[in-house]
Amino acid sequence: MLPRSIVLIVVCVAFCWPVAAGADEPKTADEVIAKYIEAIGGRAKLDSVKSLRMTGKATGMGGMEVPLAVEFKRPKKVRVEFTVQGMTGVQAFDGTTGWFIMPFMGKNDPEKMPPDMVEAIEDQGNFEGPLVDYKKKGHKVELVGKEDFEGSEVYKLKVTKKNGNVEYHFLDAEYYIPLQMKGKRSFQGTEVEMTTIFGDYKEVDGLLLAHSIKQGGMAGDMTFEKIELDVKLSDDRFTMPEVKKDEPASTDKAKPGPDDAKDAKAPEKDEG
Amino acid sequence: MKFSTSTFTMFLAVATLGSVRTAAADVKIDSYIFGGIEARAIGPATMGGRISSMDVVRTDRLTIYVGAASGGIWKSVNGGTTFKSIFDDYNQSIGALTVDRSNTDVVWVGTGEPWTRNSISVGDGVYKTTDGGENWEHLGLENSEHVSKIVIDPTDGETVYVCVTGHLWDSNEERGVFKTTDGGKSWKKILYVDEDTGCGDLAMDPQEPDILYAGMWQFRRWPHFFKSGGPGSGLHKTTDGGKTWRRITQGLPEGELGRIAIAVAPSRPSVVYATVESEKTGLYRSNDLGETWRWVGSTGAVEGRPFYFSLLLVDPTDFNRVYKPGGSTSVSNDGGQTFSGLGGGTHADHHAFWIDPDNPDFLLVGTDGGLYSSYDRGVHWNFLQALPISQFYQVSFDMEDPYNVYGGLQDNGTWMGPSQTPSGVQNKHWDNIGFGDGFHAHVDRQDSDIVYVEWQGGRILRMRKSTGEAKDIKPLPEEGDPEYRFNWNTPIHLSPNRTDTLYVGGQFLFRSRDRGESWEKISPDVTTDDPAKQRQIESGGLTPDNSTAENHCTIYTISESPLSENVIWVGTDDGNLQVTRDGGQTWENVVDRVPDLPACTWVTQVEASRHQQGTAYVTFDGHRTGDMKPHVYKTADYGATWTSLVTDKIEGYCLSVCEDLVSPDLLFLGTEFGLYISIDGGVQWARFKEKLPKVGVRAMAIHPREHDLIIATHGRGIYIIDDITPLRHLTPEVIESDAALLPTRPSRMRIPANVQEFPGNDEFVGGNPPPGAQIVYYLKKRHLFGDLKVEVYDEQDRLVSRLPGARRRGLNRVNWFMREKPPKVPPAASLVPQMYSMLGPLVPEGTYKVKLIKGGKTYEGNIEAVMDPRADYTHGGRALQDKTVMQLYRMVERLTYTVDALLDVKKQGEDRAGKLDEGSDVHASLKSFVGELEAFRKTLVATRKGGFLAGEEQLREKVVGLYGAVNGYEGAPTDSQVRYANVLEGRLEQAEARLDTWLSSLGVLNAKLEAAGAQPIKRMSKEDWEEKQRGK
Question: Tell me, what's the ipTM?
Answer without folding.
Answer: 0.86
